[in-house]
Amino acid sequence: MIAVKPVLKWVFGPLAVLFLAIQFIPVDRSNPPVGTEMPAPPEVRAILQRSCYDCHSNQTVWPWYSRVAPVSWLVAYDVRKGREELNFSEWGHVSPEEEDYIRFEIVEEIEEGEMPLPVYLRMHPKARPTAEETAILRNWAESPPGGTIP
User: Cys staple from 109: which of 10, 52, 72, 115, with CB 3.0 to 4.6 Å?
Assistant: First the structure.
């Protein structure tokens, strides 16, 4: 019969060493300088900051688990991809036509439950916009670019 303790020692010992070793693999958790912020009314900006900015801006608040591998790799990847898709901190590169399209896309992704990402909502449930907040965003999306909410 196999003794349990030696097996645990030989299985979990190397796993613990591996876990400790991967902590030394560097992960980019930088926040580049903020360029041009997106023009939006204060109530819209507050919703977007709470729900979107951690992945879609240069103002990411890096949580504690973004420092523990392998989760840190996933968080850094999601932020990098999010900034590539849409970066509220670099809005100066967006034409008025693109802005109009992006605003509708933001609302559509929220209404379809695609954003914020479900995995993000597990740790940040307050990031989910309420129905009232989604209506505010919808009104903003339907207003002229750079304009105020009707």
Answer: 115
